[in-house]
Structure formats: C-alpha cells, structure tokens
C-alpha cells in the first residue's frame, strides 16, 4: 500500500487508535484488509483507482445494508452502518455537481449515438464511459437509473 490514498487510510487508522474510536478503527481496518486482499489476489500493489473502486464497493455495501436494516426496523444497526458510511465517504473524492453529472451523461449519450449503439449495448457503453468520468464522485446506482430512464424515455 504505497499510494497516497493508502497512506491516508493508514494514518487515519493510527489516529483512530490514539483516539480510541472503535467504530472508525473497525471500519478503516476492514477497508485496509480489503485493499490488502486485492493486492494478494492480484499479486499487484493496488493503485489509486483500484483503492477507490474498493472504497466505492464498501460504500455500496453500506447503503444496501442501511436500506435492509431500515426496512426491517433495525434502527440501531442502520445507524451503525450510516456511521461507517460517513467514515468511508471521507476517502472518496469530492462529489460531482449535478451539472457535471448532466454534462457527463450528455457526452456519454452522444458518444454512444455516434457509435450507433442502442438498447443494452448503449447502456453498457454509456455506463462504462460514466464510470471512468465519475468514479468515486457520484452514486453510480443513481446515475444508472438516470441512464435507464433516458434510454427508455
């Protein structure tokens, strides 16, 4: 873990240990373990993009857990997941503005139209383009819903 983001996470773990913040420490240790697991699995040191992808995956997992806990009436568990989600979001880049997301959508749709893509192929190409453009800066589930609505609309 030699990248800047990896060092940030490592420093945050040390700070959480000093502060005796068990929620923060646990969340960051799970994140660090996921990063190390990727390094072991792929036998390559993860770069910034790979670490961001891991963080995004963990954010998505927390959001899904929050929804599940809320629907099951488990407010305490949902609150724990929200706390972990807030910690993970600290390591994501600044969120994209709605105007930036709209511009990225327009560009991706224009590129797909230039290639003559329609339906599922267009969806895949557009989402691939948007993932590169908006990685870590937008909720890709919401972006996907916007793309789907625009393709069907």
Keywords:
single chain, 153 residues, mainly alpha, globular
Provide structural commentary.
This protein is 80% helix and 0% strand. It is built from seven helices and no strands. With 153 residues, the protein is an all-alpha fold.
List the helices and strands and how they pair.
Elements: H1 4-19, H2 22-42, H3 48-71, H4 75-89, H5 98-114, H6 119-134, H7 140-152
Helix pairs in contact: 1-2, 2-4, 3-4, 5-6, 6-7
C-alpha-based Rg, rounded: 18 Å
Extended strand count: 0
Mean pLDDT: 89
Distance between the termini: 45 Å
Proportion in helices: over 70%
H and E string:
HHHHHHH
Which spans of ≥5 residues are poorly predicted at pLDDT below 50? none
The share of residues in extended strands comes to under 5%
Give the number of helices: 7
Shape: globular
Classification by helices and strands: mainly alpha
Largest sheet: none
Précis, in short:
The protein has seven helices and no strands. The protein has helices at 4-19, 22-42, 48-71, 75-89, 98-114, 119-134, 140-152.
